Amino acid sequence: MAAELDEATDTGTADIDAAAAERARRRPAVAVNRLSRLVVDPERLPDEQEPAAAYGRGAVYTRTCTGTPLRLEPYPRAAELLDTYFCPYADTVTAVVDDRLRVCGRAVIVDLHSYPLAPSGFEEPTAVRPALCLGTDPVHTPAWLVDAARGAFASLPGIDHIAENTPYSGSYVPLRHYGRTSVRAARSRR
């Protein structure tokens, strides 16, 4: 369980966030998930539409990174975990985006994650694993945002290679705002 917790926990993202915010011209609003994804993964789709659910890695994990059982399938308390942890996080991020839209007329989401050097059992083992992965979305990630994110993160210590959508792809946008071009998003993983 300790190895699973280590692999499923975003390490170093608070440091990346602080360093990037320090370099920003305007102080960003920050929403932080303080729970391990072993409780819930608040950035997955909460139902069977989530592609990772096929690997037991949906919003409520039922399998470990290596594919061994973690919880009963289906997990009888999944709805309780979603109500208690998933929904409040989604509501918080939605409120932050709503506030930015109200104040600025637009919102830019930079979603920070970390990942281990070696691929997990459910990942494509040959995928490139750069020092930093920018996850993009065809609707919410324009070229200017990719360029801006690359520029912001390239100056951070240890970032010698930045790639897009490898080993992970996509970016988090609250469901209520998906499709709204006033909300832009890129996911950063290290």
Secondary-structure map with pairings?
Blueprint: H1 2-8, H2 13-23, H3 78-104, E1 107-113, E2 132-135, H4 143-154, E3 162-164, E4 183-189
Parallel strand pairs: 1-4, 2-3
Antiparallel strand pairs: 2-4
The gross shape turns out to be globular
Helix content: 25-40%
Would you report the number of β strands? 4
Radius of gyration: 16 Å
User: Strands across the major sheet, in which order?
Assistant: 1-4-2-3
Content-based structural category: alpha/beta
Taking pLDDT < 50 over at least 5 consecutive residues as the criterion, the unreliable ranges are none
Report strand %. Answer: 5-15%
Count every helix, treating DSSP H or I runs of 4 or more residues as helices. Answer: 4
Q: How is the biggest beta sheet arranged?
A: 4 strands, mixed
Rounded average pLDDT: 90
Task: Give the termini separation.
Answer: 22 Å
Order of helices and strands: HHHEEHEE
Provide keyphrases for this structure.
single chain, 190 residues, four-stranded mixed sheet, 4 strands, alpha/beta
Can you describe what's shown?
By secondary structure, the chain is an alpha/beta fold. The chain is built from 4 helices and 4 strands, in the order αααββαββ. The longest helix has 27 residues. It is globular.
Summary, kept brief:
With 190 residues, the protein is of the alpha/beta class. It contains four helices and four strands, in the order αααββαββ.
